[in-house]
Amino acid sequence: MRLKQPNGKVAMLEIRNVSRRFGKKTAVDSVALEIEQGQMVGIIGRSGAGKSTLLRMINRLIDPSQGSIFFEGAEVSAHRGATLRRWQRDCAMIFQQFNLVPRLDVLTNVLLGRLNHRSTALNLLGMFSNEERAQAIAALERLDIAPTALQRAGTLSGGQQQRVAIARALMQQPKLILADEPIASLDPMNAKVVMDSLRDINLREGITVITNLHTLDTARSYCNRIIGMAGGKVVFDGAPESLTREAVRLVYGADANGEEISEAITSTSIRPERLRKLESAGSLEPAYAGH
Ligand SMILES: Nc1ncnc2c1ncn2[C@@H]1O[C@H](COP(=O)(O)OP(=O)(O)OP(=O)(O)O)[C@@H](O)[C@H]1O
């Protein structure tokens, strides 16, 4: 059965009372969410709040200890074999550390996004059609990195590697993109390029994007829905405008001195004015200023 949202729309992704335990530790605790097609969702929370574990369960990199996950009415958490591979094709994942094959060239890395679309025999032969190659080049052009196509992926900067990972995700022709801290290893300028690319894919193709973010202001700037997690539970779920100071405190709690966590601490900000302030305070290399 597919649940109707309060606005009458049908939820595309339903997470029904999902929990995940690791030994005695409950990483995700009875999470229930419904996400409509086309949303750009940011998941925020302190380190250890359960954000990665939640994304990994959606993609089935790990299994829930309890509860179930549905996508377009089918129970993702029960998929096995070919059905599971199809789901992992429909649900592309982007990681903080890019997860490219560094010794392979960029074009081949992007073509790897097609693997779950093809027969095992074709994959063993390692042959890609001209059409697939043209699609891969188009994906690289879209991300403005086509000139790197024949370079080894490992020689690219972090920002370029993440763009290759996004191009590879596009090659999967996914219905959903999950991004696990996609900008946590990037400088502010590259972080902006990567977030702009994800937003562009969300807006132009209508692909749902769910992304874990360490930085509150990035979630506010790019997402139309923010989910706040603390201690494995969802403690906030709403539009960026309703993420009040009180809600932020609920998500991030208090620091060791009992003081409220300021928004600056949860921010690497990709806004120029903040960069200038950080630079003049001596906490940022001048090279980042002006982006
Ligand atoms: N494979 C695992 N084995 C044991 N404990 C785990 C495992 N994966 C996660 N945990 C624990 O589950 C909790 C939630 O971890 P998770 O990585 O989901 O948090 P997070 O919010 O994504 O944090 P971060 O932002 O640091 O990645 C943490 O206490 C973590 O130590």
UniProtKB/TrEMBL annotation:
Ranges for domain ABC transporter: 13-256
Q: Which InterPro entries has this protein been placed in?
A: AAA+_ATPase, ABC_transporter-like_ATP-bd, ABC_transporter-like_CS, ABC_transpr_PhnC, MetN_ABC_transporter-like, P-loop_NTPase
Give a yes or no for keyword Membrane in this entry.
yes
Q: Name one GO molecular function term.
A: ATP hydrolysis activity
Membership in a protein family? Belongs to the ABC transporter superfamily.
**A Gene Ontology cellular-component term:** membrane
Q: Name it.
A: Phosphonate ABC transporter ATP-binding protein
Nucleotide-binding keyword on record: yes
> Which NCBIfam families is this protein grouped with?
ABC_phnC
